[in-house]
Write a structure and sequence with these properties.
With about 230 residues, the protein is of the alpha/beta class. About 40% of the residues lie in helices and about 20% in strands. Helix 5 packs parallel to helix 7. About 40% of the residues are buried.
Length: about 230
Amino acid sequence: MKFVVKYGGSLLFENGAPNVALIEKVCDTLRELYEKGHKIGLVVGGGFTARSYISALNPFFPESRKDHVAVLATRLNAMLFISRLSDICCPLPPCSFEEMMGYVNSGRMVISGGMQPGQSTNAVATLLCEAMEAKELINATNVDYVYDKDPKRHDDAKPIGEMDYERLKEIISGIGSSAGGYDMFDMVAAKNIERSRITLHFINGRDPKNICKILDGVSVGTTVKGAQ
């Protein structure tokens, strides 16, 4: 199977340092799946690295340039995975779509961060799906489900097991797009999965074996796909 995993940057750090134990578990899982013949892409978010640098920048620094710093941070995070999968993956995260296409054609695993200011790593993950002709995107986050409202603010928030593209766009329509601030998913990414009919899975990424469960057809987290 061809699939892409997007790992949220919020999962990759613990107490201000890389969560090496989790990163190694993710890499072990991806290596196991790769050796079984799966074609895999991985996109890594910015998380703590991006937020730390953005908060340290001059507040009058242009937003687009802050976004560029956030992109560089995602590539640093991607190198944490590349260092552990260097024998089966491309040596560096791609810096452009053209470079990504070249990596895809190499036959090796592509591990990417962001590519350009104003474009979330969620959007990059959808582009990698399209480049690979993959129809499954697994979004590993720090929650078990997508909820109908913010569970941190609303005690009555309800988890959603399955929804269509329109419902996803409705939920994320109010999400902001400041530098480093794409928390769940963004509208560009949502439109990309809709145009290419990609099935999106939101899972809790603290347990990398949830990736295997998705590939085995086990219902985990929230699934987003086209209306039947």
